[in-house]
């Protein structure tokens, strides 16, 4: 027996079926999937990068975005030899926003994506580096978040003297080819002179040179090491931490994750807080605002972190006043 369905009945049946479709499917039909590219100077699988990604995605979710539904995030990771390649790859995907993380990633992204909105994160001296015209008025397709003021660099010397009063020499790892590398060293030098600490600047492009300099320093008494921001050594941090541990040198670092991986002490911005704030800028750009209208912002949260296990291995007693000031003590 043949059953004939009239046009009205057919439309009613289809309407009922459409009403039952998952909301996700209907949202995907009605809205364009937005896309964000993220570029790290850290390796894939790095615990710090993965933790930042979780914070970033949670912050976007709180702002109403759902990864995999109305938002796709493309992550790329790589050292200095792969950053340009991955910047070009992300630009070719034509995302709505690209987020380079770390000073070394910004220029390659700007070159690869001259018209795509860029939200840079964890960048030292973006004006001096030529990434933006000014902090208040970026004046281009780039805005974002700085990670340090030069004057605060002197805190690393002060902390070393408090935690290891015997220190009179320090190797300073920095990138001498950047404004940030020059500015930070000048700030460190001004404080070191008043604390009678002799500095030896070392470029970060040659790990062999770093190892030779640290080994030579260890042969003399009262040595230490300072790692600056924007130096690009975060990807090699476990090698550095192992190096100073082997030579029993106290060292100061710019970020908590160095201390979490076994470093002695750090003072610097909260990297997770920067990711939360970056998510807000990405949200505003996805909703129509332009990077040129969003001022570059400085950190609002700094943290002092101490590793007691490392201090004990070095035979150092942490002053109670310093412990009381610490935001986190790793035991």
Specify Rg, calculated over alpha carbons.
24 Å
Structural class: alpha/beta
H/E element order: HHEHEHEHEEHEHEHEHEHEHEHHE
Beta-strand content bin: 15-25%
Largest sheet composition: 7 strands, mixed
* Number of DSSP E strands: 12
The first-level CATH class of the largest domain is given as: Alpha Beta
**CATH architectural name of the largest domain:** 3-Layer(aba) Sandwich
Q: What is the terminal-to-terminal distance? A: 80 Å
Coarse morphology: elongated
* CATH topology grouping of the largest domain: Rossmann fold
Helix coverage percent: 40-55%
Describe the protein.
With 331 residues, the protein is α/β, with parallel strands linked by helices. It has 2 domains: 33-149 and 270-301, Response regulator (Rossmann fold, 3-Layer(aba) Sandwich); 150-269 and 303-330, Response regulator (Rossmann fold), CATH 3.40.50. The chain has helices at 7-19, 23-30, 47-62, 83-92, 103-112, 154-163, 179-194, 207-218, 237-246, 256-260, 271-286, 308-313, 320-325; strands at residues 34-40, 71-77, 97-101, 118-123, 142-146, 169-174, 198-203, 225-227, 251-253, 265-269, 302-307, 328-330. The strands form 2 sheets. The chain has a 7-stranded mixed β-sheet with strand order 7-6-8-9-10-11-12, with helices on both faces. Strands 2-1-3-4-5 form a 5-stranded parallel β-sheet, with helices on both faces. Helix 7 links the parallel strand 6 and strand 7 (198-203). The radius of gyration is 24 Å and the shape is elongated. The N and C termini lie far apart (80 Å). The model is unreliable at 1-29 (pLDDT under 50).
């Amino acid at each position: 027996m043949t059953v004939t369905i009239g046009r009205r009945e057919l439309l009613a049946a289809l309407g009922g079926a459409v009403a039952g479709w998952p909301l996700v499917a209907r949202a995907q039909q009605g809205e364009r999937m937005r896309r964000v590219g993220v570029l790290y100077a850290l390796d894939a699988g790095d615990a710090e990068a993965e933790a930042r990604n979780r914070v970033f995605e949670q912050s976007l979710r709180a702002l109403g975005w759902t990864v995999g539904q109305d938002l796709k995030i493309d992550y790329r990771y790589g050292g200095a030899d792969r950053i340009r390649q991955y910047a070009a790859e992300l630009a070719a995907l034509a995302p709505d926003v690209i987020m380079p993380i770390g000073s070394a990633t910004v220029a390659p992204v700007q070159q690869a994506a001259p018209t795509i909105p860029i939200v840079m994160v964890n960048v030292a001296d973006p004006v001096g580096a030529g990434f933006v015209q000014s902090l208040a008025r970026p004046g281009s397709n780039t805005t974002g978040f700085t990670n340090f003021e030069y004057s605060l660099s002197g805190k690393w010397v002060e902390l070393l003297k408090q935690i290891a009063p015997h220190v009179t020499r320090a190797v300073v790892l920095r990138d001498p080819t950047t404004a940030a590398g020059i500015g930070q060293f000048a700030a460190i030098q001004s404080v070191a002179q008043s604390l009678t600490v002799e500095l030896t600047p070392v470029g970060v492009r040659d790990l062999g040179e770093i190892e030779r300099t640290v080994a030579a320093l260890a042969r003399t008494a009262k040595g230490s090491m300072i790692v600056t921001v924007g130096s690009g050594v975060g990807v090699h941090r476990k090698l550095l931490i192992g190096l100073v541990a082997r030579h029993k040198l106290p060292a100061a670092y710019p970020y908590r994750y160095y201390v979490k991986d076994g470093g002695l002490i750090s003072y610097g911005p909260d990297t997770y807080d920067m990711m939360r704030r970056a998510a807000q800028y990405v949200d505003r750009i996805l909703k129509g605002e332009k990077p040129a209208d969003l001022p570059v912002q400085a950190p609002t949260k700094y943290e002092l972190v101490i590793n007691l296990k490392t201090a004990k291995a070095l035979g150092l007693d942490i002053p109670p006043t310093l412990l009381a000031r610490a935001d986190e003590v790793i035991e």
